């Protein structure tokens, strides 16, 4: 089995709030939810700290095959809570949070878990790629966003728009009818998309933060088969290079409206049968 990982921050020199790691028969990816300037979180720790800490604990918990991926995530959230409950307000609606993708070999099957809007792509031997992403956040945003055009990226108006948007989202996070993400509530793990696929039907898997999936699901520059072929031939670093090239060609978001000109981008490519 061959596992390749590439990750880089949205801009050089700033914290990368993504996390990815692999162990024998297991891979995880987390995308920390950035907090706009002017918004408090009630926590003395950074989003990057949260994603790395939760991701490392999840990797350890999920190595036990007797523990389901959802139970491993719930236990990891509880353990992170215990690490900072004495210093931070875990009831604050803006507490650090992260998306989660995990895949694990279990006997003759490949198990998966997806929570929030990172992407898992299964390169299947007998069918088109299966793309798994939790679209509940997108559903909430569709209800919240008005019909007006989004202000240009980099403008003061855009910064104010993003701040107001995140404040509204906090009222829908980890609530029925809203969207679910890893934060301070272990029960969010029960809301993850989970399942399994016969191992002999999966050639490879790609775990992508939404900053790395942009060429396929936002920019329309690659189909999912194209993206998988690129990862297999050139590796995840090339996917990130093409993502940055596209972003730099549209700095104000005119062609591809988006919340951030560039986002932290992480891709994991796991070839299962090399």
Automatic annotation (TrEMBL):
Domain PPM-type phosphatase: residue ranges: 23-217
SUPFAM superfamilies xrefs: PP2C-like
Signal peptide (UniProt feature, chain positions): none
Compositional bias ranges of the Basic and acidic residues kind: 244-261
Region (Disordered), start-end ranges: 241-261
InterPro entries per record: PPM-type-like_dom_sf (IPR036457), PPM-type_phosphatase-like_dom (IPR001932)
Superkingdom, natural source: Bacteria
Pfam families: PP2C_2
Name the UniProt record assigns to this protein: PPM-type phosphatase domain-containing protein
């Amino acid at each position: 089995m061959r596992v390749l990982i590439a990750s880089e921050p949205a801009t050089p020199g700033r914290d990368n709030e993504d996390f990815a790691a692999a162990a024998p028969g297991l891979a995880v990816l987390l995308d920390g939810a950035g907090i706009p300037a002017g918004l408090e979180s009630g926590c003395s720790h950074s989003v990057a700290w949260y994603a790395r800490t939760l991701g490392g604990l999840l990797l350890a918990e999920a190595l036990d095959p007797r523990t389901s991926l959802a139970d491993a995530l719930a236990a990891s959230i509880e353990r992170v809570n215990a690490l900072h409950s004495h210093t931070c307000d875990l009831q604050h609606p803006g507490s650090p949070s992260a998306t989660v993708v995990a895949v694990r070999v279990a006997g003759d099957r490949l198990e998966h878990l997806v929570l929030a809007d990172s992407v898992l792509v299964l390169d299947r031997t007998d069918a088109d790629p299966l793309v798994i992403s939790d679209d509940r956040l997108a559903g909430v945003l569709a209800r919240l966003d008005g019909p007006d055009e989004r202000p240009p990226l980099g403008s003061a108006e855009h910064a104010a728009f993003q701040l107001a948007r995140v404040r509204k989202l906090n009222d829908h996070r980890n609530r029925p009818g809203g969207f679910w993400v890893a934060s301070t509530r272990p029960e969010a793990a029960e809301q993850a998309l989970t399942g399994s696929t016969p191992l002999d039907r999966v050639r490879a898997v790609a775990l992508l933060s939404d900053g790395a999936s942009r060429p396929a699901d936002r920019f329309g520059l690659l189909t999912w088969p194209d993206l998988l072929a690129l990862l297999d031939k050139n590796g995840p670093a090339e996917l990130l290079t093409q993502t940055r090239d596209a972003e730099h060609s549209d700095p104000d978001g005119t062609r591809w409206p988006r919340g951030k000109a560039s986002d932290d981008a992480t891709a994991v490519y796991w070839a299962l049968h090399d």
